[in-house]
Amino acid sequence: MDELRYQVDLLSAMNQKLENEERMYRLLCATSTSAFLYVNLLDGYIRTMGSWEQFFPEIQIRDVNDFTKLYSRVEDKYVLPFRKLLYLEDLKENSGSDILKLTDGSTWVECEVNVIYDYAHMPTDKIIRFKNISKLKNQNDELTYMAYYDVMTGLYNRNYFVRLLADFVRRAEEENTVVSVMFIDSVKSMMDSDLRSVMRLSSSLDSSCRSFLRSMCWYPILMQTCIASAFSNPWGNTVLRTSIRQCVNGRSCHSG
Q1: 31-37, long-range: CB within 8 Å, 24+ apart, which pairs?
Q2: How many CB atoms are located within 10 Å of the residue 37 CB?
Q3: Which of 15, 52, 188, 211 could covalently link to 35 via disulfide, CB atoms 3.0 to 4.6 Å apart?
C-alpha cells in the first residue's frame, strides 16, 4: 500500500512539473515578438504560436498544403528560396535560415527552420520561426550606405565603384562583351547646376537605359575631383550615348 501511495505521489509530482514547464513554454511563446510554426511530420499535427497574427494576419495553417498561403505575404523575388526553406527536410538538412521581405514593403523577416530526425534519419518534427528584423536591416542598410556612398552627392564612393567594376569585368569575360569607363575631369570648375545634372544622370535616364548605367561614383584622382562612370555592354544604345553627350557637352571627359 505504501509502495502504491509512493508511485501515485511520484506521478503527481512529475505531472505538476510537466504542467509548470508547459505553462512556462506557453508564456515564452505568448510574450515573444516572433512567430512559430510547429509541424509533426509523423501525424501531420500543426500549430502556430507566438505573434503569428502580426506576421500573417488571417492566414490559418491546418496542414502542410496551407504553406502555399504564406507565399502571398512574401515579395515575389523571395518566394522560391522561401519555398525551399519551408521544405528543408526534402534536402535532408537539419537547419537553415533566410531573410525575406513581406509584401507590405517595409517589413523584413528572418525565417529560421529546424528539422528533427530520428535514429534512422527520418524527419519527425519541424519548427519554423519568423522574426521581425526590420530595425536591424534598416540600420545595416544605413551603415552600408555610409560605407559605399558619398553622403554629400549620394553617388557610389571609390570602394564600391571598384567592387562593381570588378563584377562588370568578370561578367564581360563570361558574356564576351565590353565595359566602358568614363571620367569627367575638373569637376570643381563645373557650375553647380551642371554638377547636379551629372549626379542626377542615373536617375534621369529613360528606363530603357537604366540597365546599362550600372554605377557612378565620386572620388579624387591625382589630387583632382573626378566623377567616374562604368557601363556594362554600352555599345548599340543610342539613347544612352546621346543622354551622356548632352549632359557633359562642353566638359573635359575621356573614356577607356
Answers
A1: 33/131, 33/132, 34/129, 34/130, 34/131, 34/132, 35/129, 35/130, 36/127, 36/128, 36/129, 36/130, 37/61, 37/127, 37/128, 37/129, 37/130
A2: 22
A3: 52
Confidence of residue 184 (pLDDT cuts 50, 70, 90): low
Angle ∠(36,39,40) on CA atoms, nearest 5: 145
Average pLDDT over residues 172-178: 79
Q: What is the pLDDT of residues 204-224, one digit of tens each?
A: 443 444 444 443 343 444 334
Q: How many residues does the chain have?
A: 256
Q: Please identify which residue in the block is written with the cell numbers 558619398.
A: 150
Which residues make Cβ contacts (< 8 Å) with residue 108, sequence separation at least 6? 99, 100, 101, 102, 132, 133, 134, 137, 138
Give the number of C-alpha atoms closer than 13 A to the C-alpha of residue 79, restricted to the C-beta side.
11
Residue 103 CA: distances (Å) to CA of 46, 112, 248: 25, 19, 40
The pTM of the full predicted model, rounded to 2 decimals, is 0.57
